[in-house]
Amino acid sequence: MSKRPLATYMDDGKFYYVPEVFDCSSAKAAEINGFQMIMLSSSDFSCSSTGIPDLKLLSVEEYVGITERLTAMTDMHLFIDADEGFGRPLHTYHGCRKLAKAGADSILITDCAEGGKPGLTSIDEAVYRFRAARDGMAGTDCLLLARCDHSIDEDFEEFVERCNRYLEAGADMICPLEVNRSKRYGGKQAAAKKIAEHVKAKFWYPNLKEGEKANDIRALLHHGYKFTGIHYSFRAAMLAMLDAGRRVFESGTNDYISTAYDHTGYKFYYSPMAAFLRDGKWVQRESMYSAEPSQALAVRIEQRFIGPTDRFGPDDVR
Fold this sequence. Notes:
The chain is α/β, with parallel strands linked by helices and 318 residues long. The chain has 2 domains: 226 residues, TIM Barrel; 52 residues, no CATH class. It contains 13 helices and 10 strands. α3 packs parallel to α4 and α4 runs parallel beside α5. It is globular and about 65 Å long. Keywords: Lyase.
């Protein structure tokens, strides 16, 4: 059974917190933790997959590859952060067409200047970009998330004009990024409310910041805010690898890893591969095609990599 189109969530009365992931392991962790949607972070993806900072060097094909891998492994809805859309509008059309066909549920495109140049593109040029993105998604259920990076505090009227023009060009949602830095209207949440008074749309609330509470963000639901991104996956992974690596290097043993699992409430007998075996899907599937299921590779791998004390949460009891 195919998953529900993302558009059907727009008026369901719920607010969704969307972890920004960078690969299949971070997506699997989000799935186990109970999240329903994920976003591929362009910066985290760039660093983790190439070892190069987010310098706009990733190709369409690299985005398509990770999109196909993520949509093949999980039914969570997938947002793709595609930055400025890969180049001129024709590049945007081509990229969005391929990403939508690869299974992306929503693609974020910004109005920043092309090629990493400072500033924003003009309103008219941005409209061409968003129109090209919308045309590229034609015939699919993929939604266009238009990010407006124009300063709210410096020129609110132009910000509103931009957002409304982007909606006319085919955007399904607006991400008003500059609410992150707004001070003129009483802070981030107050600015978000003011925007909703002038732009009638569904919104992606810019990333949940330190100190912001979930209930406060959820209160913006009746103003049209449906989603917010949460950047924790890549930071958490790097922190854990640095911390564990330092202790392993200094001690000359691998003992810290075993004890650290007990401190976190998560425990893997041998390998995080257990996270991908725990639902039994691959074992059941291969057993269907084997004359001796007990000798199937997936069965033997499960026996080797899943231990009796494995825990993937407080309620995960085997």
